[in-house]
Amino acid sequence: VVEVTAGALNQPIGGLGAVLVARNVSAQKQVERMRQDFVANVSHELQTPLTVIRGFTETLLDNPDDPSARRFLELIHEEAGRMSRLVDDLLTLSRMEHHSMPMTRQPVDIPVLVESMAVKLAPRIEAAELTLDNRVPQHMPLVSGDPDLLAEVLMNLVANAVQYTPAGGLITVSMALDVGSHMVGISVKDTGIGIPAQDLPRIFERFYRVDRARSRASGGTGLGLAIVKHIMELHGGRIEVKSTVGAGTEFIVWLMEYESEQGG
Ligand code: ADP
């Protein structure tokens, strides 16, 4: 309200007009603020790996025969990989925000997506000493959506479960149909570290992490859940999360059943 100019207050529509203008100004300010925060975040996220890369290349240029040369090269490679993932995720987000994401609507067989996700993530799951329990029955109603984007949702959620679950833990994927609403729910549940209640509403924000060091150590970009949320919005679906610190986290995504959307 402080932002309202005298001109706006003097408009014939009086009070209503002033409130309207005030809201617009503060909304505009908020958008600008968010843009600035975003640019600062991206710069910081890119700066961190660059600092590591520059440090190790300088060391190698000074001492090309350093006995740790190979290790330094591995670290440089790792950091370059992080930058690549970050740029990929940023491009995905930006395409989605500008509605230039190619998206198809077709019948999608979730059990098939779960199966191929399990194959792709098997080495990571094994390395982390975790068990994946795929409880999705082979024959389930088809959902309406884009198979590539939905595969990305699944990959992101299960990859997070792997990242945030200590060795010996269990990741369970299951699926159910809500007959009344014709919605299909897909659940990814872990027995991991959990998310504190006060952080839960913010985890879908870009670059929001509960534990920055932990996310970084596991190679996270902080954009995975922002992308998941966007994909769910594009599908007209929704995502729920329940979590207990020290016990585990469950994400459930809800999508429209294919048949019902076709009016059948
Ligand atoms: P990141 O690349 O950091 O994993 P995400 O956007 O995928 O970024 O997730 C945001 C944050 O949400 C993570 O940094 C982590 O703190 C929290 N988080 C996401 N999934 C889980 C999970 N399954 N268990 C515990 N914390 C999680």
TrEMBL record:
Histidine kinase domain boundaries: 41-259
Key words of the record: Kinase, Membrane, Phosphoprotein, Transferase, Two-component regulatory system
EC number(s) given by UniProt: 2.7.13.3
Catalytic activity: ATP + protein L-histidine = ADP + protein N-phospho-L-histidine
Superkingdom as given in the UniProt entry: Bacteria
Cellular localization per UniProt: Membrane
One example GO MF annotation: kinase activity
Principal localisation: membrane
Enzyme class: transferase
Protein name, UniProt field: histidine kinase
Organism: Sulfobacillus thermotolerans
Lineage, highest ranks first: Bacteria, Bacillati, Bacillota, Clostridia, Eubacteriales
